[in-house]
Design a protein that fits this description.
401 residues; alpha/beta; 7-stranded mixed beta sheet; 3-stranded antiparallel beta sheet; 14 strands; 38% helix; globular; disordered N terminus
């Protein structure tokens, strides 16, 4: 490295905290305002929200009620349509299993995409052992959703279509309104996992006929261990019913037994409130500009490509493949300086290549030499500058040509 380059490196490194965190699709740090909102419900107002005869429980109950109103309002729905769970994985299980059990007498066919989150795919594969017939739609080569294939797969036995709002690895945004309208026209329930879209996309359940939506707090600077499920009361004048998967109590309209996580619920609502503010200001536009700068810089390398680049995407996600590169070595050389991911956080311990990337047509070798960069509200221009410099340096070192 030249003397000039060394000086530039020292300048970029100044005031940076290592490792630089660019894995916000895996999880986000809890916002200080969220933590402050939660604290009283660990100590002073620690009561059980279901025990309202005493002041402690009553205060907890009021906090839950207010939180439910805040989240429902942000989604364009009413509080009675939103229930709290332990996270999106539980929400997905409750919705998919619950619909299947409630509607199996009408049909057992479910349609989904082959690049859903493992929480959805694993649930569906388990249901296949219990009589479900599941159709998996592969993405088009550019990462977009195949609406024509969806229309072809619908039959008289179809009871549910479940497609994620935005892909957790690519950041690609699916045509949710179009899918929802088709499902409504065919009198089929439509569910979307909006875990990655919440706070990044303007979701309005008052105008989009989504029947079921799942989400989680920890992707939007809220606490881990809390999520939610939106359930529309009626679909084409027919009541929507799902069977509970956790029994032992009447909480959450009887759909989910267990004592409510009041601090988590309060933190979830505060996180949603902050995310709604970001949708109104320029935070996401600034984040997209930094993401675009990162992509443009990395595309200067000869053997790189952005997956899903020409499809509507979340503003903070870049999925970059490095051709003719030792992927394992690339990640090992980066991990001390930059926290990134190769795919879903829930499957990152699996050495198999990403099912999302192979569904796009990438070879196993190229899929394993792919990095997901996901920026956050605290990502700085200096961090992107350093990341560009470091990744370029390591990419050259691991090149196999």
């Amino acid at each position: 490295m030249s003397a000039t380059a060394t000086l530039v490196t020292k300048s970029i490194n100044h005031n940076l905290n290592f490792p630089i965190y660019l894995d916000h699709n895996a999880t986000t740090p809890c916002d200080k305002c969220v933590v402050e909102a939660m604290l009283p419900y660990f100590t002073n107002d620690f009561g059980n929200a279901a025990s309202m005869h005493g002041l402690h429980g009553w205060n907890a109950h009021k906090a839950v009620t207010q939180a439910r109103e805040t989240i429902a309002s942000a989604l364009g729905t009413t509080p009675e349509n939103f229930i709290f769970t332990s996270g999106a994985t539980e929400s997905n299980n409750l919705a998919i299993r619950g619909i299947f059990q409630a509607c199996a007498h009408e049909g057992k066919h479910i349609i989904t995409s082959s690049i859903e989150h493992p929480a959805t795919l694993a649930t569906l594969r388990d249901l296949e052992q219990h009589g479900a017939v599941v159709s998996y739609i592969d993405p088009l080569p550019d990462g977009s959703f195949d609406m024509a294939k969806l229309a072809q797969l619908i039959n008289e036995e179809t009871i549910l279509i479940t497609v994620m709002y935005a892909n957790n690895e690519l950041g690609t945004i699916n045509p949710i309104a179009e899918i929802a309208e088709l499902a409504q026209e065919k009198d089929i329930y439509f569910m979307t996992d909006a875990t990655q879209a919440l706070g990044k996309v303007d979701i309005d359940l008052a105008t989009c006929p989504i029947d079921i939506l799942t989400c989680s707090a920890h992707k939007i600077y809220g606490p881990k261990g809390i999520g939610g499920l939106y359930l529309r009361k009626q679909h084409n004048k027919k009541n929507i019913e799902i069977k509970p998967q956790i029994t032992g109590g009447s909480s959450e309209q009887g759909l989910r037994g267990g004592t409510l996580n009041v601090p988590g619920i309060v933190g979830f609502a505060k996180a949603v409130e902050l995310a709604q503010q970001e949708l109104r200001d320029e935070t996401l536009q600034q984040l997209e500009a930094l993401r675009n700068k990162l992509e443009a810089g990395l595309l200067e390398l000869t053997n790189t490509q952005v997956n899903g680049m020409n499809v509507p995407r979340l503003p903070h996600v870049c999925n970059m493949s490095f051709r003719h590169t030792d992927g394992k070595k690339l990640l090992n050389l980066l991990k001390k300086d930059i926290s990134v991911s190769t795919g879903s956080a829930c499957s990152s311990s699996n050495l198999a290549p990403s099912h999302v990337l192979t569904a796009l047509g990438l070879s196993d070798e190229l899929a394993q030499a792919t990095i997901r960069f996901s920026l956050g509200r605290q990502t700085t221009a200096a961090e992107i500058d350093y990341t560009l410099q470091k990744v370029k340096e390591v990419a050259v070192m691991t090149s196999q040509i």
